[in-house]
Amino acid sequence: MGIDGGAAVAESLLASGRGSGKLSLPLLQSKMKCDPEGYESELLLLYNQFNSSLDLFQKQADMNFTSISGIGSDRTVAKDLGDRASFLSHVTPFYPKQLADFPQKLADLLRGAARTLPSGLRCNLTQALILLSNRKIVDIGETLALFMELQTLGDRTLKKLAFDHVVHSIRRMNQKHKNEAKNRVLQNILFDILRKEDEEPAKRALVTLCELHRRKVWFDERTANAICTASFHQSSRIMIAALSFLLDYEKIQEDDDSDDSSNDDETTESPQVALSKETIYKASHQGTAASKKKKKAKLERAIRSMKRKQRLSSEKSNNSYYSPLNHLKDAQGFAEKLFDRLKICNERFEIKMMILKLIARTIGLHRLIVIEFYPFLEKYIQPHQRDITNLLAAVVQACHDMVPPDAVEPLFKQIVNRFVHDRSRPEAITVGINAVREICMRMPLLMNEDLLQDLALYKKSREKAVSVSARSLIGLFREVCPSLLVKKDRGRPIDPKAKPKAFGDVNVATDVPGAELLRIIDNDDEQESGDSDDSASDSDQENDLMSINDDDSDDENQLCSDGTGSDDDEAEGDESSDDKVGISDADDDIEDSEQQADSEDGDDTEDDDGNVMSKSTLEDSRKKRKLPDFNGQLIAGDTSLRALKKLAGTKMGDVLPEPEDGILSNEDFQRIKKLKAKREAKNALAQQGLKVPSSDQLSLKRVDGAMLEAHVRKKLNKEERLALVRAGREERGKYYARTAVKQNKTGGLSNRQKEHKKKMPLAAKRDKVARGRIEKKKKNSRSGKQFRGRKAWKQ
């Protein structure tokens, strides 16, 4: 505090009739807050002193009355100015009319002479302006450009102070609800600074945008596109900062402070796994101990894989998996422009690798087609190339099923020829085969039969890493295309005729995903109700047919039997058509072949009564039995609703079980979710070996160069094993036998001993004795029935 300022205020207080033994500005500040109206004269006096100090300071600046330390060689003037500015900023909310122009004067002083002010005074004035902004006296939109400029003055303390204020002010502004209009104004200010050629202001604007985007304050397309566009800046420092943020965004850990306070109320649902009771029962009760152990292990693996899939799908649906590259408005143009800059880039190799990895990540994420990118990578594919694993990881990320195989085939062959050969080191062979596996997982059409069989021979290598990588490649093609493998390498694939989709082949969803599951359930319900109706109608039909004359009874019974038989056959065909397609055609072929074989055996056959039937009569009877009888179907249609539907030509197989308005309800979607979980559980239990992810999952997957290297745990020697054993014994106490512990026990009796000495009621004693007698009687009766053989001494 200034001594002269305190003395002047003390004199003014004495003149007004108020005594003060020892007065300071903080004490006066607290009194003004308690009684603003009573101290208005003192406020005006201090405000006039601030104005005079400000005029004196500006005159010193105009006269260039400076020293080595800067303007203000008279330190008392700078100190008084800082103290009064801090004092007035604290009492401004209590005197809004008297100090209306004070915030503007403070901002103008910082805006005009911030570079020439002493460091202490500059920090005091900035803190005073921040205090006014926090109390919403000054708007952040008016001072944002000023605070961004203060970060470029080279003062580390001031830079941190201004940066934290900008970030916290924008966070606090968007904490309850987002004001899009105000956010757009602030974003435009930062975007304009970022587009400037001046390096330092643009760098601070980029850092501010990245911090707000990382904290999910400005989590929109405009901010993401501005950060991505910063990778084209003329300054290499800004370009490197933007590239680092975009590449390492997925590795950034969220802060544990109040940033996540908005996410505390969100409850994350644990993934649900629907397993049938039969599967759980078989895993726990059926089979030997070894088989049950295997079944339980398989069940646990299936549950883990299903939970992982559900977690990934929920993350994808909830957009928790996120990268700023997802919001690119023109991803193709961004990748091509960045690739053009890479071709003329003269930076060091690390910067080129960052640009290359960003291009590959963009191509894989948006499934772009940049044909020139793959021949450009060929010159870097060498085993001795620096950072080769990350380079191969970029190659893998740039491959997807929408790229023509002809464009990637030269690069693919170069990886195989340079890395996988007999004279190459085991580490290079491992990296090469792993890279081939990851590329073939995305583009299986690149692999041919001869190359795959040659690579499969490395499974016999003495190097464990090489053999493991070769077996993983074999496991992939067991699922993707088993026909490329030799017979002994195919194993037991689920689909022996599986083949990869042709180039450009895409599965397009025409209905609501999972709606066919509802149709299957509804068909099952209709079949159950139809069976019950058929049974009731058959009994009624038999009662009606009993009253028909004897002359017509044979024909009508024949018609009825034919009709009902055809219905049953069709019902069985409908039930089996869900599992096996085309089985009716096979039955027809078998029946035709049987007819041909019977006709070749002999022209005449005997019926049940022993009468000889000619070939023509036999064929006529078979045709009559094979062709549908219209009258019989009409009679059966009177009693069976399901047969009437089939007769009218209504087929419910291809029609969705939608409600009358054609819109699925929320209950239907919940049923679809549960049925999908059951189907995934069934498929996971039935599936064996490698589980190949879909193309969408592969495009979102981040490929790390470390996963292409060999990760084989070496066998521990004796010293290392003993060290692990000793480390496990540190927390364990000394071993004592159980009998020794019981003998040395110094406490009371055990619970079992206490039960023997417990006094029981008379009724409980009688009940215990009665139960003992019954159990003894049952035991004796069971032992008496068992024949244990005659004793030798009784014979």
Automatic annotation (TrEMBL):
Segments forming domain SDA1 middle: 575-728
InterPro entries hit by this protein: ARM-type_fold (IPR016024), Sda1 (IPR027312), SDA1_C (IPR048292), SDA1_MD (IPR007949), SDA1_N (IPR012977)
Name the UniProt record assigns to this protein: Protein SDA1
Assigned protein family: Belongs to the SDA1 family.
Ranges of biased composition (kind: Acidic residues): 523-557, 565-577, 585-610
Domain SDA1 N-terminal stretches: 87-462
Biased composition annotated in UniProt, kind: Basic residues: 774-795
Listed Polar residues bias regions: 741-751
GO cellular component terms, semicolon-separated: nucleolus
Signal peptide per UniProt: none
Transmembrane regions listed in the UniProt entry: none
Localisation: Nucleus, Nucleolus
Function: Required for 60S pre-ribosomal subunits export to the cytoplasm.
Top-level taxon of origin: Eukaryota
Any one of the GO BP annotations: protein transport
Residues covered by the SDA1 C-terminal domain: 747-792
Region entry Disordered, spans: 521-631, 735-795
Keywords: Nucleus, Protein transport, Ribosome biogenesis, Transport
Residue spans of biased composition, Basic and acidic residues class: 764-773
